[in-house]
Amino acid sequence: MRITLDxxxxxxxxxxxxxxxxxxxxxxxxxxxxxxxxxxxxVVGTGRSLQFRSALKSIEQFDRNANFASNxxxxxxxTLDSIVSAVQNVRSLALRGANxxxxxxxxxxxxxxxxxxxxQIADLVNTQYAGKYIFGGKIxxxxxxxxxxxxxxxYLYQGDSGQLKIRIGPSLYVDASVRGDVVLNIDGASAxxxxxxxxxxxxxxxxxxAADVNGISQEIVNVDSVLANIVAxxxxxxxxxxxxxxxxxxxxxxxxxxxxxxSKTEDVDLAEAIVELRMRxxxxxxxxxxxxxxxxISLFNSSTY
Length: 305
Known about the structure:
By secondary structure, the chain is mainly alpha-helical. The protein has helices spanning about 5-30, 45-95, 105-125, 180-185, 195-210, 215-265, 270-295, 300-305, and strands spanning about 130, 130-135, 145, 155, 165-170, 170-175. Helix content is about 70%, strand content about 5%. Strands 1-2 form a two-stranded antiparallel sheet.
């Protein structure tokens, strides 16, 4: 087979282009730290990378959800603490009012404090987190507790009976809400045979003004019932927060493991990448040298051989 100058120069150009392409890929790997630049670099590795990235995206979403739920439940727990303090204050005022020898002025002062406490508790149950009301079940865009225009009962619940379930795992949900009607026993939501907290406080107020010592003592039993219910709810919320803390820790560990697997699939060994880059540079330089020699051969020089 006769080797012509055109064949020789075409082959040199082809080798030079191939060497240039390999050098460019080596430069990309060394500079980016990524072994897979395009799916064709590693079809199997690309498939694994997509799976790991999908898993990582899900874990990050679950982590955001779990942190949101934990923060909201922490706000609920803190609010319940404040309600407990307010109810304890109601009990203290009731005990002071169950005294037949206090003056009318003192009774009026106690009644005024109870009025303030009713408003305080209503405001607490209308607490918001991230712009949403957190004691109204699934209804989060309006205050769960509103004054009753009719006057009795003093306040109405306008939330629903739903639970705000937040997904924190493939098949794992957490209830990130506590219903205000359950907290306050409105319409007997937590104790059907007992009045709600607002009615109880209002009754205590009226009996203090009427100097009805025996009646006040009977209402303290209702206060204790509501107080025990709120303390139990606070304990339940604390349990959910504790479980969420464990879930958040587990999600963090899962995220780290998936990131490691993704790195092993996509990333290059930097030392190997640098060695390969230097080798490709040497090969390319050799190819350039050969190309210069071949392409500088003139037709006149080639005809002399």
